[in-house]
Amino acid sequence: MRQDSSIRTDARRVIDTVKAGGIALVPNDTGYAFCGSSLEPLRKIFERKKRGSHKRNAMAANLDTQRELHTLDARAQEMVDALVLDHDLPIAVVGTFRVDHPIMSKLNPELLRESSAAGTVALLLNAGTFHNEVCRLSQEEVVPLLGSSANFSGTGTRFRVEDIPQELLSVADVVINHGLRRGHVYKRAGTVINFNTMEVVRIGAFYEMISDVLRRSFNVELPPDPGTDALPSGHLNEFALKDVA
Questions:
Q1: CB contact set of 144 (below 8 Å; sequence gap of 6+)
Q2: Which entry of 102, 108, 216, 236 is 20 to 30 Å from 162 by CA?
Q3: Where are the domains of the chain?
Q4: What is the C-alpha separation between 7 and 21, in angstroms, rounded?
Q5: Are strands 192-194 and 91-96 parallel, antiparallel or unpaired?
Q6: Secondary structure of 172-192 as H, E, C letters
Q7: Measured on CA atoms in the order 179, 145, 14, 140, is the torsion positive or negative?
Q8: Torsions phi, psi of 112, nearest 5?
Q9: Are 145 and 35 spatial neighbours (Cβ–Cβ below 8 Å)?
């Protein structure tokens, strides 16, 4: 097992890299992802991934940042808290947000447009020990961590660095390799839910557990998972925030 000091050192390398305008490849429990903190590196990621311009960057965050940044109603926030604190599940939370939050204030107008839609932003929470440490630094130093999965668009999340095509891997200024990610058994990226509307944006890893918690504790019925035969991994691993009023 990696020691805490290694996790702290690796997280420090990521924060320093993105603060300097670079790109980092980072491990999450739901797969490897590229991240940056400013417009140029994030556009470079999109171009190298061949990702559609209609798609948006997601942001890595911890629960404290999410509570401050999102403007969910009390019941929706209670659901998010239960998933993260009570059941230790990774979840990407889509919700309306405070434009004046310090993290959002770091985004210039173009980057804000490319990272939000209809007044919502997606925040990936609780995606592993490394994710939690790098998000702690992000919060303390007010460094946005934006990006998307380390794969060509529509080809499925990668759970090992060795499975990422070299053409993609070469875009990263720093590579954090923590081996096989625990979400690999799902062969899917993380689950994404809009907690303002309770719309499932993407059925992904840990979906059956997330659904069970929301059903038992909040009487919320999410759509059944049709399985990977009905939703091939390439379709599951990309999502777009909807530009709707």
A1: 37, 59, 103, 104, 106, 107, 138
A2: 236
A3: 4-236
A4: 22
A5: parallel
A6: CCEECCCCCCHHHHHCCCECE
A7: negative
A8: -65, -40
A9: yes
**Residue 7: which residues within 8 A CB-CB, separation 6 or more?**
129, 130, 133
One-letter amino acid at 86 equals D
Single-letter amino acid code for the residue at 30: T
Structure tokens at 82: 């239960």
What would you report as the CA-atom Rg of the chain, rounded to the nearest whole angstrom? 16
Per-residue model confidence as pLDDT tens digits over 194-234: 999 999 999 999 999 999 999 999 999 999 998 876 654 43
Across the strands, what pairs with 101?
none
Question: For 67-83, what is each residue's pLDDT tens digit?
Answer: 999 999 999 999 999 99
Rounded to whole angstroms, what are the CA distances from 4 to 11, 136, 189, 242? 11, 14, 26, 38
pLDDT at 2 over 60: no
Distance CA 222, CA 237 (A): 19
Mean pLDDT confidence for 139-163:
94
Q: What is the pLDDT of residues 176-197, one digit of tens each?
A: 999 999 999 998 999 999 999 9
CATH topology of domain 4-236: DHBP synthase (3.90.870)
Q: Could you tell me the two tokens for 8?
A: 């702290």
Is 33's pLDDT higher than 70? yes
